[in-house]
Design a protein that fits this description.
Elements (H helix, E strand, L loop, with lengths): L1 H19 L3 H17 L1 H8 L5 H15 L4 H12 L6 H16 L1 E8 L5 H15 L2 E8 L6 E6 L2 E6 H14 L1
Parallel strand pairs: 1-2
Antiparallel strand pairs: 1-3, 3-4
Helix pairs in contact: 1-6, 2-3, 2-6, 4-5
Length: 181
């Protein structure tokens, strides 16, 4: 809980500053890329998580990342420096997640995940997205996930709401009904 409240403060501040200059989506994309880089690289993750690294060592790594990125938004670069300065770099993944949620809420978007037994065709995915947009009255950004255990059908989670039309769930409901009889 402490992680989320700390991350929320930094994410809100970052959102307010980027919204003024209308660079919220660009910063969100760059922030997501940075977090993915930390997740993919054990060495970078070690710098982020290991208390054996000093603040100056973390600052050097962050400055190197900023230079390597080249076109990193100055607001984001300064946020990274501030996180290092205050020994809060460990919260970067949480800051990115909360920032994305706040930016989506401000833009009237909601993210969702569609899970199916097999990959869905692009037109089917688009039709599902439009249907979910009508249900939620918000712009829906869908991520597709394949889970062969579903057997068939789809399950879509948008925000905190789950729309489950999977064959596995339907079979489970039939099993419960038959047991009750």
């Amino acid at each position: 809980m402490v992680n989320v409240s700390i991350a929320r403060r930094y994410a809100r501040a970052l959102l307010d500053v980027t919204a003024e200059s209308q660079r919220t989506d660009a910063v969100a994309t760059q922030l997501d890329s940075l977090v993915k880089a930390f997740e993919k690289s054990p060495e970078l993750s070690d710098v982020l998580l290991n208390p054996a690294y000093s603040r100056s060592q973390r600052a050097q790594v962050v400055e190197s990342l900023i230079q390597l990125a080249g076109n990193l938004d100055p607001i984001l670069a300064n946020t990274l420096r501030l996180l290092v300065e205050r020994n809060r770099l460990i919260y970067l993944p949480d800051v990115a997640r909360v920032f994305r949620e706040l930016a989506d809420a401000r833009a009237g978007r909601v993210r969702g995940q569609v899970t199916s037994a097999a990959p869905l065709a692009p037109d089917t995915l688009e039709q599902l997205r439009k249907t979910l947009q009508q249900l939620t009255q918000r712009d829906v950004i869908l991520e597709q996930k394949v889970d062969p255990a579903l057997l068939g059908g789809v399950a879509a989670q948008v925000g905190s709401v789950l729309y489950d039309g999977s064959l596995r769930t339907q079979l489970e409901q039939m099993r419960r009904q038959l047991k009750q009889q």
